[in-house]
Design a protein that fits this description.
By secondary structure, this protein is mainly alpha-helical. The chain has eight helices and no strands. It has a single domain, classed as MetI-like (MetI-like fold, Orthogonal Bundle).
Length: 219
């Protein structure tokens, strides 16, 4: 059995399961972005009720460890009669996790634009949503882009925790292979190298965007 797991075979198996890590990361980030945008609008809305609801949501999610969120979704929903598999629980938990942090990133970028821009837009007769979409969002986007890309690294690394509930992604595959081959140093070195290959380009991109933004402000 162990002879079947050559170095090349181990690497290929880990790369195969790394595809699930990448797919889960993309879905979590996309879903978190859509939900996070709605929460962001709530946080900057003139309605105190919406603002407070958005604040409670982000505070609650950010204060809950991702691992605990995975447990609550995977083990808690079946108690309420809603059966979920590991894939669904991982997706829901990571979407909630990403949405709360992206909402805070984007809210900070919007508030950095300045109240004068809001007042100028309203003076032109634009509604709140028109002011947000046409005037505020384009300016905030440039400031929000570097930290948004940087946060995507946290989403990729956060997928490793889904192995706890049985979702077979890169980390879980590494654990399973190690249990068969008894080669922890090699197996987890490859796992770490794959995570590095996925995360480091995103970090470089975030730094590049930050330098461009800083240069645009100082020029």
């Amino acid at each position: 059995m162990m002879r079947q797991f050559t170095d090349e075979r181990i690497i290929l198996l880990l790369l195969e399961h790394a595809q699930w890590t990448a797919l889960l990361s993309l879905i979590a980030f996309a879903g978190g972005a859509m939900l996070g945008l709605a929460v962001t609008v709530m946080r900057v809305a003139p309605s105190k009720a919406l603002n407070r609801a958005g604040m409670v949501y982000t505070g609650l999610i950010q204060s809950t460890p991702l691992l605990m969120m995975l447990f609550l979704v995977f083990f808690g929903l079946p108690l309420a009669g809603v059966n979920v598999d590991a894939w669904t629980a991982a997706t829901v938990s990571l979407v909630l996790f990403a949405s709360a942090f992206l909402a805070d990133i984007w809210r900070g970028a919007i508030e950095a634009v300045g109240r004068g821009q809001w007042e100028a837009a309203r003076a032109l007769g634009l509604t709140f949503l028109q002011s947000f979409r046409l005037v505020i969002a384009p300016q905030a986007l440039r400031m929000a882009l570097p930290p948004t890309v940087g946060f995507s690294v946290q989403v990729v690394k956060g997928t490793a925790l889904t192995s706890i509930i049985g979702f077979v992604e890169l980390t879980k595959a590494g654990t399973m292979l190690n249990n068969v081959t008894f080669r922890p140093f090699f197996v987890f070195s490859v796992v770490a190298a794959i995570y590095f290959a996925m995360c480091f380009p995103l970090s470089l991109w975030a730094r590049h965007l930050e330098r461009r933004l800083h240069g645009a402000h100082t020029s």
